[in-house]
Amino acid sequence: MTITLEPPQTQRAPLGVEPEVSIVSQAEERAPTVPALRIEHLTKKFVVGGRRKRKTVVAVDDISLSIERGEIYGLLGANGSGKSTFIRLVSTLLTVDEGRVEVFGHDIVREEMAVKRLINRVSVDAAFFKKLSPTENLMYAARLYGVDAKLARREIVRILGRLGIAESRLSRPLEQMSRGMQQKVAIARAFLTSPVLLLLDEPTTGLDPRSKLEVQTFIEEIRDQHSATIVLTTHDLEEAERLCSRIGLLNDGRLVTEGTATELKAAAAAANGGREATLHDVFMTHTGRSLDDDAEESGEDD
């Protein structure tokens, strides 16, 4: 999750709460004229290995794309394809080597603080104060983002309840909760601050089928009711097809194709003699391998 210690100057009301006074962020004012996310020739390289065997790995390789407000844009790819590096770049956790990234018209290099006020991130390795309870962790995040304490407490109960965590469990230390439960708290923490651009990096990894369905349904509600723009990385082809208005496929750091699920499957069918295609076939067509045969975890190049 991306957190800045400087409270946002313009803050949307928490989810489910109607503000008494209409607060229009700079992002919302620019929305009719600029994409939610514009990326031009984005490139990130890492130097790996020891002194004698150093080599340069291109983790994100000349990616260009544009995502409109209100979209859920999915990024599919095996481990090592560059998905997580891409998310870290957009969320300003990594520096850009080449190219340009704009969030609602704000350049992430020149206007980093403005960008941080508009985004939030959920990752598989979400960090918490493990000795504190879900409520205490979320109240801390709410204070950092300038969310009213009374509203925050009400929203914490509502959001976690929507994600399947009962109010009776909110006072337990996080270290006593399962990894799946902790992931739900991470998702709630991101939603609590009502970001205009939400970056979800494998948000349902490690969740049981019921919890995964609860999270997916909640993501759909956020899209439909709050006009948030969402970038979702996932290994789950069914999840991508259900949630995403468009899907991009990453392979070895490059964006090899993008389109709606219907468009991608139609193109794969045409490439394979007209046989009906699935998103699995799309992945095989463009990468030559199955997503099930995932590459080994490789650190920074993921």
Account of the protein in words:
The strands form 2 sheets. The chain has a 6-stranded mixed sheet, sandwiched between helices. The protein has a 4-stranded antiparallel sheet with strand order 2-1-4-5. Helix 4 (134-144) runs parallel beside helix 6 (179-192). It is built from 10 helices and 10 strands. With 302 residues, it is of the alpha/beta class. The protein has helices at residues 26-30, 83-90, 112-116, 134-144, 149-162, 179-192, 209-226, 237-243, 261-271, 279-287; strands spanning 37-48, 55-67, 72-76, 98-103, 106-107, 119-122, 197-201, 229-234, 246-251, 254-259. Mean pLDDT is 82; it is low at 1-28 and 295-301. The chain has a domain at 127-194. Strand 4 (98-103) and strand 5 form a beta hairpin.
Order of helix and strand elements from N to C terminus: HEEEHEEHEHHHEHEHEEHH
Outline type = globular
Low-pLDDT stretches are: 1-28, 295-301
Q: Termini, distance in Å?
A: 17 Å
Largest sheet: 6 strands, mixed
Total beta strand runs: 10
Helix content: 25-40%
Strand order of the largest sheet: 6-7-8-3-9-10
Mean pLDDT, nearest integer? 82
Write the layout of secondary structure elements.
Layout: H1 26-30, E1 37-48, E2 55-67, E3 72-76, H2 83-90, E4 98-103, E5 106-107, H3 112-116, E6 119-122, H4 134-144, H5 149-162, H6 179-192, E7 197-201, H7 209-226, E8 229-234, H8 237-243, E9 246-251, E10 254-259, H9 261-271, H10 279-287
Parallel strand pairs: 3-8, 3-9, 6-7, 7-8
Antiparallel strand pairs: 1-2, 1-4, 4-5, 9-10
